[in-house]
Structure formats: structure tokens, C-alpha cells
Write a structure and sequence with these properties.
The complex is a heterodimer of chains A (324) and B (519).
Chain A: E1 8-9, E2 12-13, H1 14-40, H2 47-72, H3 80-97, H4 101-126, H5 130-149, E3 154-155, H6 163-166, E4 168-169, E5 172-173, H7 174-192, H8 194-204, H9 206-211, H10 216-242, E6 244-245, H11 253-263, H12 275-294, H13 299-323
Antiparallel strand pairs in A: 1-2, 3-6, 4-5
Chain B: H1 8-12, E1 14-25, E2 28-39, E3 43-47, H2 54-61, E4 69-74, E5 77-78, H3 84-90, E6 92-95, H4 107-111, H5 127-140, H6 156-169, E7 174-178, H7 186-201, E8 205-209, H8 213-219, E9 222-227, E10 230-236, H9 242-250, E11 268-277, E12 280-288, E13 292-296, H10 303-310, E14 316-323, E15 326-328, H11 333-339, E16 341-344, H12 348-352, H13 359-364, H14 368-371, H15 379-392, H16 409-421, E17 427-431, H17 439-454, E18 458-462, H18 466-472, E19 475-480, E20 483-489, H19 490-494, H20 500-507, H21 512-518
Parallel strand pairs in B: 3-8, 3-9, 6-7, 7-8, 13-18, 13-19, 16-17, 17-18
Antiparallel strand pairs in B: 1-2, 1-4, 4-5, 9-10, 11-12, 11-14, 14-15, 19-20
The chains are: A mainly alpha (324), B alpha/beta (519).
């Protein structure tokens, strides 16, 4: 294995340096934002604010951890926002008739997983475009949410359910613990298992994956099921936080999840992503929201800046790919 | 190469004159002070192993890369372009190895893309005029086809001809051809050569990049050799032999072009009976342990299609497959791999590698199911096994964590080989195992094939290069229009009773009597 001579930057040769910036550049951006916000806003570093940032992040984070599997395998899932709503109404109804928190949570996760499965089957079996399939299925899913709730939102029958959203162990809120667990499981699944390898192979080059004996069909379906499960979990967190079952929540949440993936270095072409990168992407988005709130910038401008941020991140991704 | 003519007149003899051109990528020096000159009106062969710097220099010339330093003169004028479009304006065009036509444009639209005729003083296209001009050009190149035919209906060879016509119609005076014959069969190659001679008569200069020595001596006038990013030498082809060129390229003398060794041929390992599918009919053959079976035929004669069918990539309509005497069912590549069959696809980029993933992931991909039974992949063992296979095949890479993308063609092919070798196959199908691979790596791959055979592997090799088929096979099957039209043994080739001509005649569908006459 040969050694290449080149310019030295910070004690590394140029190739290593490029790889280093590609891999960790985003971490520096996150740290820079942290420092910037600590200096400009005196309230930022208060414990209350920090836990608040991370609790908001938790919801988007769980969604993004599902989304990163789908995008890595070369797909996209626009239906997760609707799944939040369906999960929420499912929880409301199950709690009303059964009252068991665990049961309600499981049922909502399973229902979202089933819709993920249906998305995946349609896409992989008939080779339809994921964009179109999930664009359509989000209508079906949200519509179902309205149907089973009769269109109304209602307060939860079991008030202790809300502890999932607001409770803490020590100073750490439950949602953050849920995000951490989901992140660890996602990390192991994507980086350490055969399934993860197949996800990268399918997204990287679907023909080569087939020719290498990878079960492309079930790998693609699997990513959508994972996305559904994550949407179900996120739905539980969200329902618990607002302490009500609502069929109209979660609109536009897929955008944040996609943005987190892309900012975290996930390539839209498929085959390139990391779980730590995605986590950093999520935190960066959380910091942007929080920073703007602290600085008193209106939510309208937040929306605009989020859009610009996604465009910027995709542009960087394209430029990096072009250079290769 | 140190002499540098300063007289202008002398330079005008050269259509292209590159001096001291250098280019680095990151830490890798792709070109080091290269001088490269091409005389006007010649067909100039550009030779070198993969990674020698040929493509880098050509990409600088058509403006895809920018040289770090050095000067380029085109027809005596300082030349520097920012992209292929500007290069075309200067009169420089490149025919790429892999063509990317717009499939739904007609031939005429494709030729005149971005130089469309419009109806006077309106923005509307004048299709009639475009078609008329295209028809004229097609006729000039003896290509009988309607200019309104869609590009997607053409064969690769025809698309290539359209590319050449396009270049010439844009008044190209220098045409660079990168491995133009790599996807052509012998008849199409002959046709391309006629076109090249035609261009030469019109005064067009051609830079011809190829790894096929026979072709270079057939069509080229002069040569330049590159090695490891440096210019090594230039001259007239009439003054050198094939062996001279090869030793210039690899920097050592390569004695035997084909290292085929005779090894013990054992029991029947693999057998098919009456295989039929899209593009092939009633194919039966067997391969033994330790045997290399060569499949020869024109492109599209059904060789690759049969292998894709066997490997489960395309459906079979009928026929039986036996592995070591047992009938087996193969529905998809997964089944084939589980049974111990491996296939190196002819299309490395699309079917061989995930270019943006590491060597480690690429090599272990087909072997995860068999070798790593636990839920979590044992990464330390994976690194060790992948590393030892990469080393065994002498893959040149920064590390096994490097992207497959960063390797040269020959090394990429070795990675593909490594990944299938790691699966310990009983039957190894190799479709064009040395396509786009340089001379040195080619010899290494041939040596490895012999090693595999000696270990008892049954090898089926498809190749469009007759010397490779004749030099490497224990037995040769000839395909013609989806059927097997002949079988030759290595002994017949060694004793000279079967020649290139005999095989070609069979490929074109000759019956046995005709073949006798050719002999």
C-alpha cells in the first residue's frame, strides 16, 4: 500500500485533511454556533434553555434517524409528518378504550410501521418513485387520522401519559433519553450490521448490490419500515408533550428531518451518510431555531432561513460530489 | 525529450505541442513535466498503463481539468480552454470511451445539438434543413440510416460513429479517441478503422488511446508512451515492435503475453443443458474443475446474456443447470452466490462496484451472508480478511478504507476480483475480465486466473479480444446469433490448425465446410 507525498496541513497530508474536513467540518460549525449564541445571548447557556433546545431537537431527531435510512438507500419519505398525526389519534383512541400507556404506544408504533411497510412494498415491488408514492400516501395517512378521530382533537384520557413528554431523570428529560436510545440503535444498525451495509450498497449502486446477491427488495422495504417506526416513536413524544390527540399535527415535519440529514452530510444520490453526522445536523437545526427565538426573530423569518439552509446544504453536497 | 525546438516553422509541423505540463490532485502527482507533441495529419497512439497520466492530459486538452503549469500550443497558437465547448470551437473534440447520448434525440438533432438551424429571423427550428445536412454527412460516411432515427435505437458502434460525425461537422482538426474499440466487435472495429482512414484523408489528426496492441499497429502512424505521470518516449510505429512498446510502458520486459499454464483438469464442475432465454437458444456446455472455458463471439451474440441468465440476473425460459452433478435452481444472484458461483460483470461501473464506498465494504459485500453469520459484523476479522485478499491480488490503494472511486481501472478490476475470490467460488464467470485494464494489470489478472484454475476453480471467460481467448482458454466455444456454432481445443490453437481467421469465420456463422476452406 503506497504512501503519497503532499502538502502538509496541520500535520496531516492534504488527502487526510480533506477527508477530515468532510467528516468533521460540520462539527466545527456546530461548535461555532454554540459559541456565537453563548456570546450574543445571555439566556442561551441557562440550563432551562439548553434542555429546552434538546427537547425540541428530540422530536425532529427521532424522525431524522428514520429518514437517514431511507435517503441512504436512495429513497425519500414525505409521509412521516402525517404519520405523527395518525400516531397521535391512535394513541388518543387506544387510551380512551384501554387506558394502558404501553399498549397505546406499541399500537401507534405498529400502525406507523405498517404504513412504512406499505410505502416500501409499493416502491420496491412496482419500482415507483418514492417521492410520488409517499407524497400520495401522506394524504391517505392523514386522512385516516381525521377519519378515526372524527376530525376533532381531544385531551388524553390518561394524564400520566404526558410524563413521557415532560418527565425527567435527574435533569435529563425523557425525550432526550429516547433520542439517545434511538440514535444508538440506529448507529449499530447502519454501521455495524449486514443490513446497514446493504442499505449503503443499495443506495450507492443498486445494480452492483443486486449482482452481489444483496436482497435489494427487502432492504428498500426495511428502510421505510424503520422510518415508520421512528415516526411512531416521534408521534408518542409529540402527543405526550401537547397532552392531546390531534389529527392536524406534524405538518411539514418531514422537511426538518430531511434538512437534518442533508446538513449532516447525507447525499441525496444515496449511499453516503453517517448517524453521528445526522445527529449533528439535528442539533444545528435546533440551535438555529433557538437562536432566532432568543434573538427575537419572527417565525416567518425562521421559515425562510430554514429553506435557505437546506438549499445551502444541498449545494455543498453537490459541490463536494463534483470535486470527487 | 529535453530538446525544445524554438523555431516557429518547426512547431507548425505539430498540430498539438504540450510543454512541461504538470498536474496534481491532492497529494498525487498525475502529470510531471510532460512534453507531448502530435504531428499534423497523423493517427497518433497514446500508450501507457492505467494511471500513467494519459486521461489526465487529454482532459486538460479538452478543458475538463486545468494544468498546474506548462504551456500548450495548438497549430502554433497558445491554447487554453475552460471546457469541451470551447475546445470544440478551437477544433478539438474527444470521443469518450463511454458515450452518453441523449436517447430521445434524433440523429440529426444530436449531430447539430447547440448549433441548430432556425428559420430565418425566428427562434423556430428548421428541421428540414437540419435533416438535409445530417443526411449529407451520413452519406459521406457511408452510413445508410435515416437522420430522424432516435439515438436510443442505435448500437454502441453506431452511436460512436455519430459522435465522430458530430465532431467532424463542427470542423474538428484534432479528434481524441479514448479506447474507441472497447465495446466493439471485430466487424465494427474494422468499420471504425475505415472511418479513421477517411478522416485522415481529410487532414484530421487523431490521438488514439488503446490498450490493444494489434489495433495500434494496424491503424496508427506514431506513438507516445507515458508511465507514472511522465513522458517516456515517442517515435514512428514502423520502427518498433509490440514487445518494445510494452517494455516502454511497464518499464520492464514482459516476456510471455499470456502466462497460461497447463494444470490438471478434473471432474465436471458445472454443466448447463438446453438453456434458453432472451438472446440465446438451446445452450449446452460443461466446465471442469481447473479448466478455463473461453466464450467467443460478436458483441450481442448471446454470450453475456447466457451468463446473466445463469447467474440469475435475467430470467431463463427453459433449461437445466447442474453444479457438481446436482441440478440447482437459480432465481437470483443471491442463489447463485450461495451455491458457489461468482460472476465478474463486464460493466464494472454499473454492476461491479459501489464507487463511493470503501474497498473494504465493496470486497465484503457479497460475502457478509456466508462469512459473518452473527448479527453484528466482526469488523476486526473483516478488516483482516479483506486486507489479505487485497494484498494477495496486489491492489494498489492508500488503504482498504479508500473509496473505490479513487482507484485506476486496473485496480478497480482487482477489487472486483478480490470480492469474488473471498467468496471461495467453485465456478467463476468472468465477462471481459481485462476490459479497460492496462498491460501490467492485465498480465497480473491472467496470472491470477491460472492460479485459480490450478486451485481447482472452474472458470468461464468471455472476451472480445481474440488473442486473449486464444491465449488463455483450455477450450473455446464460439457463439453465433444466440447459439453455439463451434468448439475448439487449446491443442488445436497450439498446433496452429485453428487460427484467428478460423474463429472469426465461426463467429460470423460459417458452417464447418466453409471453415475448412478458410483453413
Amino acid at each position: 500500500m503506497s504512501d503519497k507525498n503532499g502538502k502538509n496541513i496541520l500535520g496531516m497530508n492534504q488527502n487526510d485533511f480533506n477527508m477530515f474536513t468532510r467528516r468533521y467540518g460540520i462539527v466545527f460549525i456546530m461548535i461555532a454556533m454554540f459559541v456565537l449564541l453563548s456570546v450574543t445571548s445571555p439566556n442561551f447557556l441557562k440550563l432551562n434553555n439548553i434542555t429546552n433546545v434538546f427537547s425540541t431537537v428530540a422530536l425532529n431527531g427521532v424522525l431524522a434517524m428514520g429518514m437517514v435510512f431511507v435517503i441512504t438507500a436512495g429513497g425519500i419519505d414525505l409521509s412521516i409528518g402525517s404519520m405523527l398525526a395518525l400516531a397521535s389519534t391512535t394513541i388518543g383512541i387506544t387510551l380512551k378504550y384501554n387506558g394502558n400507556i404501553l399498549m397505546a404506544s406499541l399500537v401507534s408504533i405498529i400502525i406507523c410501521a405498517i404504513f412504512g411497510l406499505l410505502n416500501g412494498l409499493l416502491i420496491a415491488k412496482f419500482n415507483m418513485f418514492p417521492f410520488v408514492v409517499t407524497l400520495a400516501s401522506q394524504l391517505v395517512i392523514r386522512g385516516l387520522g381525521y377519519v378515526i378521530s372524527g376530525g376533532y382533537s381531544f385531551a388524553l384520557a390518561n394524564p400520566s401519559f404526558s410524563r413521557i413528554g415532560l418527565g425527567k431523570i435527574g435533569i435529563i428529560p425523557y425525550p432526550i433519553l429516547i433520542l439517545l436510545s434511538v440514535t444508538i440503535i440506529a448507529y449499530i444498525l447502519l454501521h455495524w450490521t449486514k443490513f446497514g451495509r446493504y442499505v449503503y450498497a443499495v443506495g450507492g449502486n443498486i445494480n452492483a448490490a443486486t449482482a452481489s446477491g444483496v436482497d435489494v427488495f427487502w432492504t428498500r422495504v426495511g428502510t421505510f419500515v424503520i422510518s415508520g417506526i421512528c415516526a411512531g416513536i416521534a408521534g408518542i413524544i409529540m402527543t405526550a408533550r401537547i397532552n392531546a390527540a390531534q389529527p392536524n399535527i406534524g405538518v411539514g415535519y418531514e422537511t426538518d428531518a430531511i434538512a437534518a440529514c442533508v446538513i449532516g452530510g447525507t447525499s441525496f444520490a444515496g449511499g453516503i451518510s453517517t448517524i453521528p453526522g445526522t445527529l449533528v445536523g439535528i442539533i444545528i437545526i435546533g440551535l438555529i431555531y433557538n437562536g432566532m427565538n432568543l434573538l427575537g426573530i419572527s417565525s416567518y423569518w425562521q421559515m425562510i432561513s430554514k429553506g435557505l439552509l437546506i438549499i445551502g446544504a444541498v449545494m455543498i453536497d453537490t459541490l463536494i460530489n463534483k470535486r470527487r | 525529450m529535453s530538446e525544445q525546438p524554438q523555431i516557429n516553422q518547426h512547431q507548425y509541423e505539430y498540430i498539438l505541442d504540450c510543454q512541461n505540463v504538470s498536474k496534481s490532485f491532492g497529494g498525487t502527482r498525475a502529470l510531471i513535466d510532460v512534453d507531448f507533441r502530435v504531428k499534423k495529419g497523423q493517427v497518433h497512439a497514446l500508450l501507457g498503463e492505467n494511471g500513467a497520466g494519459k486521461s489526465t492530459l487529454m482532459k486538460i486538452i479538452i478543458g475538463l481539468y486545468k494544468a498546474d503549469k506548462g504551456t500548450i500550443l495548438f497549430e502554433g497558437k497558445p491554447y487554453s480552454v475552460k471546457g469541451p465547448a470551447e475546445a470544440t470551437k478551437w477544433g478539438v473534440s474527444m470521443i469518450h470511451q463511454e458515450l452518453n447520448p441523449e436517447p430521445y434525440l434524433s440523429i440529426a438533432e444530436s449531430i447539430f445539438l447547440k448549433r441548430e438551424d432556425t428559420i430565418k429571423r425566428t427562434p423556430f427550428l428548421n428541421k428540414k434543413e437540419t435533416n438535409r445536412k445530417a443526411a449529407e454527412l451520413l452519406e459521406h460516411f457511408n452510413f445508410t440510416i435515416s437522420p430522424t432515427t432516435l439515438m436510443e435505437e442505435l448500437t454502441l458502434a453506431q452511436m460512436q460513429l455519430i459522435e465522430i460525425i458530430k465532431a467532424v461537422s463542427a470542423n474538428a482538426r484534432l479528434v481524441i479517441m479514448d479506447e474507441p474499440t472497447s465495446s466493439l466487435d471485430s466487424e465494427e472495429t474494422e468499420r471504425l478503422f475505415r472511418t479513421i482512414r477517411n478522416l485522415k484523408e481529410q487532414g484530421v489528426t487523431i490521438i488514439y488511446i488503446s490498450h490493444r496492441m494489434e489495433e495500434i499497429f494496424q491503424i496508427c502512424d506514431s506513438y507516445s508512451v507515458f508511465r507514472d505521470g511522465r513522458f517516456i518516449g515517442t517515435g514512428d510505429l514502423a520502427a518498433v515492435t509490440q514487445k518494445d512498446l510494452i517494455s516502454l510502458m511497464v518499464g520492464r520486459v514482459v516476456e510471455n503475453v499470456f502466462p497460461k499454464t497447463d494444470c490438471e483438469i478434473g471432474e465436471i464442475a458445472f454443466q448447463v443443458e438446453g438453456l434458453t432465454g432472451k438472446g440465446f437458444t438451446d445452450i449446452s456446455f460443461e466446465v471442469r474443475h481447473g479448466e478455463i472455458l473461453g466464450l467467443s463471439g460478436l458483441v450481442g451474440s448471446g454470450r453475456s446474456e447466457t451468463m446473466r441468465g445463469i447467474f440469475g440476473m435475467d430470467p431463463l425460459t427453459s433449461g437445466k443447470i447442474y453444479l457438481e452433478g446436482q441440478e440447482i435452481q437459480i432465481k437470483n444472484p443471491k442463489d447463485a452466490i450461495n451455491k458457489g458461483i461468482a460472476m465478474i460483470n463486464e460493466d464494472r461501473k454499473n454492476y461491479g462496484l459501489c464507487l463511493y464506498r470503501s474497498l473494504r465494504e465493496n470486497i465484503s459485500l457479497p460475502n457478509l451472508r456466508k462469512k459473518f453469520k452473527k448479527l453484528l459484523i466482526d469488523q476486526r476479522r473483516e478488516k483482516k480478511e479483506v486486507g489479505s485478499h487485497a494484498e494477495k491480488l496486489r491492489v494498489k490503494a492508500a488503504s482498504i478504507e479508500a473509496d473505490a472511486f479513487s482507484l485506476s481501472g486496473g485496480n478497480q478490476q482487482k477489487v472486483v476480483l478480490a470480492k469474488w475470490l473471498m467468496s471461495d467460488p467453485k465456478v467463476l464467470i468472468m465477462d471481459e475480465p481485462t476490459r479497460g485494464v492496462d498491460v501490467g494489470a492485465k498480465a497480473e489478472i491472467h496470472t491470477l486466473m491460472c492460479e485459480f484454475a490450478a486451485e481447482g476453480m472452474a472458470i468461464i471467460m468471455i472476451s472480445s479480444e481474440l488473442p486473449e481467448i486464444m491465449g488463455m482458454s483450455d477450450r473455446i466455444l464460439i457463439y453465433h446469433e444466440g447459439r453455439i456454432n463451434g468448439e475448439f481445443l487449446r491443442e488445436q490453437i497450439l498446433d496452429g490448425s485453428v487460427t484467428q481467421e478460423t474463429i472469426l469465420a465461426k463467429e460470423f456463422g460459417a458452417k464447418d465446410e466453409v471453415v475448412e476452406n478458410v483453413r
